[in-house]
Amino acid sequence: MTPAIRNPINKLQVNARLLRSLHQRLMQAGTWMGTLLPQDCQLCGAQSGATLLCAGCRDALPVLPACCPQCAMPAFSGEICGACLKRPPQFDATLAAMRYEFPADHLVLALKFGARLPIASLLADLMLERIHSVHQSKICKNEMPLPDLLIPMPLHRTRLAERGFNQAVEISRHLANHLHRPLMTGAVWRHRDTLPQSELPLPKRRANVRGAFKSHTDFTGRYIAVVDDVMTSGSTLDELARVLKRAGARRVENWIVARTWTERNIRGALSV
């Protein structure tokens, strides 16, 4: 007889695995059902054929203009910005699919807080367009085009139990499957339950996540892509990159769905 699950966090984690399994089966069925039955656009609700966005909403997504290759903030001619020159971050590059504003923010929030899991594959597809564009230029320069592995931004177990899933993991699954790269979900963990970064002013975010991550994995010489949904100050990604570099990682890139451009960050990025 199967023993009862007494720990409520473990029970919710089991439920999250069951939810993911059901979602994967539904997505497999949707691959062929979408060609038979019209989909509704995830933003406006209009019929969108076999895709999750109609053409109008797809064209309305906020593109990211020329930006700093290290932090994805505004930069003249796509050069490294003033903020990264003054205080180089631990990560080596940032690839973002969109700016975090309407209607991209609605998609991110619908996945993160609305548990609309099919949106994870849509966001991954949008990221892949950006990833292929950037890494194709690396191939032309005889540089290593793709990372050795993907690591989704970890959630603390308490937050994971409350939400039932990690949106970064769901997006990463689609990226890893498409790019044929290993996905490591347990190599780094968030051992300290920090305050949500969105509730803190930008100057306090770095201190909030200091020492939040741990890893016992040897990443010596590895090229790693860290996957997350939104990047605002970059403090959480910087702290995670610091832990990965201490574990031996050769290069750490951020793969982000949407980048927030705040007035404060824009001033810092464009300063010389």
Would you mind describing this structure in some detail?
With 272 residues, this protein is of the alpha/beta class. It has a single domain, classed as Rossmann fold (3-Layer(aba) Sandwich), CATH 3.40.50. Helix content is 44%, strand content 15%. The strands form three sheets. Strands 3-8-7-4 form a four-stranded parallel beta sheet. The chain has a two-stranded antiparallel ribbon with strand order 1-2. It has a two-stranded antiparallel sheet with strand order 5-6. Helix 1 crosses helix 6, helix 4 crosses helix 5 and helix 5 crosses helix 7 (167-179). The N and C termini lie far apart (67 Å). The model is unreliable at 1-9 and 26-35 (pLDDT under 50).
Spatial strand sequence of the major β-sheet:
3-8-7-4
- Termini separation comes to 67 Å
So how many helices? 10
The whole-number mean of residue pLDDT values reads 82
Per DSSP, what share of the residues sits in E-state strands of 2 or more residues? 5-15%
**Unreliable sequence segments:** 1-9, 26-35
What structural category do the secondary elements indicate? Answer: alpha/beta
Under the CATH scheme, the architecture is 3-Layer(aba) Sandwich
CA radius of gyration: 19 Å
Describe the secondary structure blueprint for this structure.
Layout (H helix, E strand, L loop, with lengths): L7 H29 L2 E2 L6 E3 L5 H6 L21 H5 L6 E7 L4 H9 L5 H23 L8 E4 L4 H7 L3 H13 L8 E3 L11 H8 L3 E3 L7 E9 L3 H12 L4 E9 L3 H8 L2
Parallel strand pairs: 3-8, 4-7, 7-8
Antiparallel strand pairs: 1-2, 5-6
Helix pairs in contact: 1-6, 4-5, 5-7
